[in-house]
Amino acid sequence: MTIAFTQMFFFISFQWDAVTGGENGLMGIERYPLSFFGLFRIGIESSLAFYYFVFAILALSILLLWKLVHSPLGTVFYAIKQNELRAKYLGYNTPFFKWISWLISGAFGGLAGALHALLTHGAFADPIHWSRSGDVVMMVIIGGGLTNFFGPVLGAIIFVALRDIFSTITEHWYLFYGLLIVGIILFMPEGILGYLKVGKSGAQKESSQELKPTSLELKGVE
Fold this sequence. Notes:
By secondary structure, the chain is mainly alpha-helical.
């Protein structure tokens, strides 16, 4: 369903020239200075200024999502993720909360799309093609977003970096990227941060077992 709706909206935006600009997209999107109630203005026209502007929005978004995840609403989201039927038995309207999570996801997705339009000075249909719908999933899987809050951030950095590296080597870079994803799923199903977390907890468990005296040692002490 996700891929079907993605492709449907792609064709609408690609063909509806009067509204979306069709194949050429919406050109001429400018970066105007930020004005705070007329008190002072911050220019984001240059690439460096726009970089710091986007970085500030990223930091604020991470902070808001961190607060959300550790709030009562985030606890409900986690309960639905683990066992939706049990969450229903506890009295939660799970379709409503899933709808709320969908709205939050769409809001941050729209924010990212707006920043991308400012970056490229235009809005085009290519980012909503069905072949791009798996990019976010790959970012989450690579970084370990299913087990760690900062997994998607790490996954996005690795995804973009490796995409730029592989694309300079060959035009079939998705093939190598697909092999990388398969390798991560097979050997690190919880992602990089999840794998490191499991390895660290396993090392701590082994060290605690080594420090714990056995029954024979306790008898010797007695």
